[in-house]
Amino acid sequence: MTLRPEVNGNQRCKSSNNFxxxxxxxxxxxxxxxxxxxxxxxxxxxxxxxCGGNTRKAMTLYRYxxxxxxxxxxxxxxxxxxxxxxxxxxxxxxxxxxxxxxSISSDGFLxxxxxxxxxxxxxxxxxxxxxxxxxxxxxxxxxxxxxVWKYMFSPPQYRATGQxxxxxxxxxxxxxxxxxxxxxxxxxxxxxxNTLRNRIAHHEPICFLTNHAVIHTDYIKTExxxxxxxxxxxxxxxxxxxxxxxxxxxxxxxxxSL
Length: 258
Fold this sequence. Notes:
It is a single chain. This protein is mainly alpha-helical. Helix content is 62%, strand content 0%. The protein starts with 8 loop residues before the first helix and ends with a helix.
């Protein structure tokens, strides 16, 4: 009987990888007609128009828009987790560790008629976790979307939580006669960030002037700087936190150069 030498898993992987490398097909850019067929003429028309009919530039712009969307979504995701956790710490200090579950009890702070929508959102999330035998405060907290945390700064929710949530921003600027930096200001800023988040999540382009086929990155830069400001008001060093992740302005420069 002829004995075959043993081949371990690593050797098998190495052999397979070599085969893939030796047989790799050279990558090349897709032609525009195929690109448009896949993504639709209606979707690509704005890119083509903004590039003066240059289809090669239109495909490049489309890819840059995907890149800037990824970059901004990463920044917004980090911001969302941060503000959620800061709100949680403050309301834990005021109401206790189970404040979120307690807020939807019959006498909870979200039980009033003017906070009923937030009450229902939290209640549905809580009941789903209970039904699946998965409830914990952390899971309930992380299962709620950005809109819930935004609305914590709307007048009804802000009053219901004891008007304490501006403490989340201990380093915010002082109000002036022309600019009141209160909870309504914070709500409006969060609302704009949430709108951008939802636009990206629904695959809307963000590299154009609103309602025009004109390349324009001011909107992106404005929201980006807004997030940096809110991070700073929370006492968060966003440059260190986002080290290696933040390439927003570089991608904006590439878009602007087209």
